[in-house]
Amino acid sequence: MSKQPKILSTILECVAVLILGGIIISLLNRTIDTEPKVKNVIFMIGDGMGVSHITATMIHNSYEPLNMERATSAGLQKTYSANSRVTDSAAAGSALSTGYKTNNGMIGMTPDGVAHPSIREKAERAGMATGIIATYPVTNATPASFVGHVPHRNMEDSIATYYLSNTVDVIIGGGSRRFDQREDGRNFLDSLRAREYIVTNDLADIKDVTEGRVAVFPTDDSMPTVLHGRSTEFLPTATAKALEILTNNADGDGFFLMVEGSQIDGWAHKHELEGVITETQDFDNAVGVAFDYADKHPGTLVVVTADHETGGLTIVNGNRKFDLNDHMVDYAWTTGGHNGGMVPFFAYGTGAEHFKGVLENTDIPRIMCRLLGLDEN
C-alpha cells in the first residue's frame, strides 16, 4: 500500500486540528471580549470597622443578613504602616489610596516625602468622573488621602487647597470651616462656586441635580452621629445621588467614588457599643445602595473594607457557659486606640473575583488600577 494516502491523511488531520483549535481560541477570545470590563469603582471604607464590629451588628440584627454579606468575594487585609505595627487613619488611608505604605500621620506621600497619586487622581487624569463622601470633614485623614499630599494629617487647611487644584465632581461631607473660615482669609466655597460647583449645606438642595459638580457641607466640622441626630438616610441618600451624578458626568468613561463610614471609629474609641452598631448599620445601608447599583450597571466593582480596627472589641459568652441563646453575650474592649489586627474586605460586581485571600492594604488600590486600566505605580 502506498505511503502517500497515509501522509495525506495525516496532513488533513493536522489541518483539521489547527482549524478546530483556531475556532476554539476565537470563541474564547470572543467570550473574553464580551465579558463586562471594570469601568466604575465604588470604594467603601468603614473607619475603624473590624470583624467584631460587624459581628456585633449581626447579633443586634438577630443575624438577619447585612448587605455586606451579599459580597461574592471576601478576605483579610494587613493594616500595619511603614513605621508602626499599629496604623493610624492617615497611613492606612494613604496605603488604600496610593498603593504605598507610609508613616503614621502622613497623607498621600511615602516616608521620604515623595507624593504618589491616589487612585482617584489617576482616574481623574484618565478622564473619569470622581467623588468623595464622608461624615467626618472631607479634609480628615481618609478622604484627604484620596485628594491631597501633605506631611501631616493635621494640615487640614492645606488639604482643602487640593479640592481646588483637583476636580472632584461630587464632594459631600463635613468640614466647611476649612473652606470658609480659614486662617488665610480666603473663601474656598466662593472659589468652588466660581468653578461652577453647586455649593450648599443641605443634601436636599441637590435632590433634582443629575449632573455637574456639587459640594455639600452640612456642617462646619464633623457631622452629627446617628445617635446624635444624623438621619439614617443621609449616607445611603448621598451615595445614591453621587452615583447618579457621576454616571451622567462620566458619559460612558467610568467613575471612581470613595465613600467613608467615618464615625464607627469615634464611637469605638469611646467604647460606646450602641454608637458603633448604629454607624455600622448606616454604613451597611450605603453598601446596599452600591451593591444594587452594581446589579443594574455591569462593569461596576464595589470594594468594602476598613482602614484599621478601633477599640479591640471582643465578643464573649455572657456567663462563660456555652448553652445560652444568641443574645446572651458580653462585649469587652481591650484598647482605647487602634489595634494591629487584620480587617476584612468584601467585593461585589464586575471583577470581584480578583479580591480574595489575605492581601496587603496596598494591594487593593493596585488591583483596582489594573482592572481600570490605570497605572498601578
The SS-based structural class is alpha/beta
Globally, the shape reads globular
At CATH level 2, the architecture is 3-Layer(aba) Sandwich
**Sequence stretches where pLDDT stays below 50 over 5 or more residues:** none
Could you describe the 3D structure shown?
The chain is α/β, with parallel strands linked by helices. It has one domain (40-372): Alkaline Phosphatase, subunit A. Helix content is 38%, strand content 20%. The chain contains twelve helices and 14 strands. The protein has helices at 3-34, 51-60, 89-98, 119-125, 141-145, 156-165, 177-180, 188-194, 234-250, 264-269, 273-296, 363-372; strands at residues 40-46, 73-78, 129-137, 170-174, 197-200, 213-216, 255-261, 300-306, 309-310, 313-317, 329-333, 338-339, 343-349, 357-360. Strands 5-6-4-3-7-1-8-13-2-14 form a ten-stranded mixed β-sheet, with helices on both faces. Helix 2 crosses helix 11 (273-296), helix 3 runs parallel beside helix 12 and helix 9 (234-250) runs parallel beside helix 11 (273-296). The longest helix has 32 residues, at 3-34. It is globular and about 90 Å long.
What attributes characterize this protein structure?
377 residues; two-stranded antiparallel ribbon; Alkaline Phosphatase, subunit A; 38% helix; ten-stranded mixed beta sheet
